[in-house]
Amino acid sequence: MTATTPPGPRSVDRALEILDIVADADGPVGARAMARRLGCSLSTVYHLLGPLTARGHLVRADGGYAPGPRVAALHRSFQRHVGLAPGVGEVLGRLRRASGAEAYFTAYRDGRITVVDSTAPVTDTAIPFVPGPEVRAHATAHGKVLLAGVSRSVRRRYLAEHGMARFTDRTITAAERFEAELSRVRGQGFAVSVGEADPAYTCLAMALPGGADGGVLHALSVSLPTEDFRHRHGQVRAAVADCVRAFYDGAGIAGG
Predict the structure, then answer these.
(1) What pLDDT, on a 0 to 100 scale, did the predictor assign at position 24?
(2) Fewer C-beta within 10 Å: the chain N or C terminus?
(3) For residue 60, what is the domain's CATH number?
(4) Measured between alpha carbons, how far is 241 from 149 in angstroms, rounded to an integer?
(5) Is residue 256 a part of any domain in this protein?
(6) CA distances, 100 to each of 6, 23, 64, 145, 163 (Å)
């Protein structure tokens, strides 16, 4: 092992940090910028960039490094494992047209909630809900409806691990109040978050059929400006309910 080669576990951790840095950036990231973020030498960064680019996880681009083609394959594999079937995209498009709002397919698995797919354009940075790990589950409709579907012990573990940060003055941050909210969600069959994750947006979600406590649970949801939701909340809720029924009628989810 050379002086510039970090030890095994630390090397893996730094390689993953590099992937996170590139994934979160708006454009290519230079090696020097990575070294500053990681607090390590430039030679160490280049040592890690070698296998990441060779395996296709990153590519060299003007100004630095960008996500590579292997990322797309990993994303497709992840979608399969959390139950995204080909028909889900069609249902999301149908929901988008019927509701006039961006539509989302979200999954709970192994203590994590992920927005798996959506109709929102990836270039629209104004939309607060994007595919990827959901870090605001307690403040979103899809997070509420998924957490309402697991046992209280599982939910407690989830909240203990992820916390209940306050994002707006409407965010529920007390555990007992959150339990009361989820009881209401189970009773009415849908969840709503009015400005809890983002002050300007409201989201509405319903659980999809299938899944079991400890397994994979799914939800359909929409998000739209709160002022728009207030004027047509009945239409939006009916559109989501109609698309959820499409799953009951045979649209299906892979593995469900």
Answers:
(1) 84
(2) N
(3) 1.10.10.10
(4) 17
(5) no
(6) 51, 29, 38, 21, 32
